[in-house]
Design a protein that fits this description.
Number of helices: 9
CATH topology of the largest domain: D-Maltodextrin-Binding Protein, domain 2
Strand content: 15-25%
CATH superfamily of the largest domain: Periplasmic binding protein-like II
Order of helices and strands: HEEEHEHEHEEEHEHEHEEEHH
Shape: globular
Radius of gyration: 28 Å
Number of strands: 13
CATH architecture of the largest domain: 3-Layer(aba) Sandwich
C-alpha cells in the first residue's frame, strides 16, 4: 500500500513539474509588432522617417571620407527633428520615388530640395519654405553658342527625372531631353559632351562647378524663383504642425542661420 501511495505521489510531482516547465518559457515569446512610420518609440519619443535623394550636393550627399550623409538639408532635418522631439530615421531614395513614398506612408516626410509647386501640393503638404532657389543653365566652358535659356531650342538637354528642371526642359521647342535618376549623372553627361546643356537648381550646379569642375560654366539668369519645403503626407497634419513649429524656433534662435552660413557662406536670404 505504501509503495502504491509513494508511486502515486511521485507521478503527481512529475506531472506538476512538467506543467510548471511549460508555463516558464516553453513557448516562444510574443513578437513585437512592426511599427508604422511615426509610431510610438517608447522612451526615445516618436520616430520620424524621412526620405531624401542623397545625390544633391550641397543639400544632401555622401561624405567620401566617412560614408555618412551630410549637407544643408541633412543638418537642418536633424535639428528640426531634435527640436520637435522626434527620433530621426533618415533614408536615402531616388528623388522621383519620394512623393509616391509619402502617398503610401512609407515615410513621414521628405527633405530633398523639393520645390513647392501647385501640382505637388495637390498630393502632399509642405512646411513653410526653408530655402529660396531657382533654375540655371549649365554648359561646357568652351561653349559660346548657348548664352541663356533662349538658346536651348533643339538642343540636347540633360535633367533629373521628376524635377522642376525637367518640367522646364519639356517646355523648350524641339529639345532632345535625356532623363537621369540624379543630378550628378546629368552633369557628368555634360562634361563628357553627350549633351549640350543641363537645367538644374542653381545652388547645386554652382556647387558642382566650385568642386573643381571648371570645364563647366553657368550661363544666363536664374530662370525662376523657387522655394523649397519639407514634404509631408496629406494625412499627417500633426507632423506638419510639429515640423513648422520646430523650423520657426530654429529661425528665431539663430540655429537655422548657423547651418545656412556653414553650407553657403552667407546669411539666409
Amino acid at each position: 500500500m505504501k509503495k502504491v501511495l509513494k508511486f502515486g505521489l511521485l507521478a503527481l510531482l512529475v506531472l506538476a513539474l512538467a506543467v510548471a516547465a511549460a508555463g516558464c518559457g516553453g513557448s516562444e515569446p510574443p513578437k513585437e509588432e512592426a511599427k508604422e512610420p511615426g509610431g510610438d518609440q517608447g522612451q526615445t519619443g516618436k520616430k520620424l522617417v524621412v526620405g531624401s535623394d542623397t545625390t544633391f550636393a550641397p543639400f544632401e550627399f555622401t561624405d567620401a571620407a566617412t560614408g555618412k550623409y551630410i549637407g544643408f538639408d541633412v543638418e537642418l532635418i536633424e535639428a528640426v527633428a531634435k527640436e520637435a522631439g522626434y527620433e530621426l530615421d533618415f533614408r536615402s531614395m531616388a528623388f522621383d520615388g519620394l512623393i509616391p513614398a509619402l502617398q503610401t506612408s512609407q515615410i513621414d516626410a521628405a527633405i530633398s530640395s523639393i520645390t513647392i509647386t501647385d501640382e505637388r501640393k495637390q498630393v502632399v503638404n509642405f512646411t513653410d519654405p526653408y530655402y529660396k532657389s531657382g533654375l540655371i543653365v549649365a554648359v561646357q566652358a568652351k561653349n559660346d553658342d548657348i548664352k541663356s535659356f533662349d538658346d536651348l531650342k533643339g538642343k540636347k538637354i540633360a535633367v533629373q527625372s521628376g524635377t522642376t528642371g525637367a518640367k522646364m526642359a519639356e517646355k523648350i521647342p524641339e529639345a532632345k531631353i535625356t532623363y537621369f535618376t540624379n543630378t550628378d549623372q546629368a552633369l557628368m553627361e555634360l562634361k563628357n559632351g553627350a549633351v549640350d546643356a543641363v537645367i538644374n537648381d542653381y545652388p547645386v550646379s554652382a556647387y558642382f562647378v566650385k568642386q573643381g569642375n571648371d570645364d563647366v560654366k553657368l550661363v544666363g539668369d536664374i530662370l525662376s524663383a523657387e522655394e523649397y519645403g519639407i514634404a509631408v503626407p496629406k494625412d499627417k497634419t500633426e507632423v506638419l504642425e510639429n515640423l513648422n513649429a520646430a523650423l520657426k524656433t530654429l529661425k528665431e534662435n539663430g540655429e537655422y542661420a548657423t547651418i545656412y552660413k556653414k553650407w553657403f557662406g552667407e546669411e539666409p536670404k
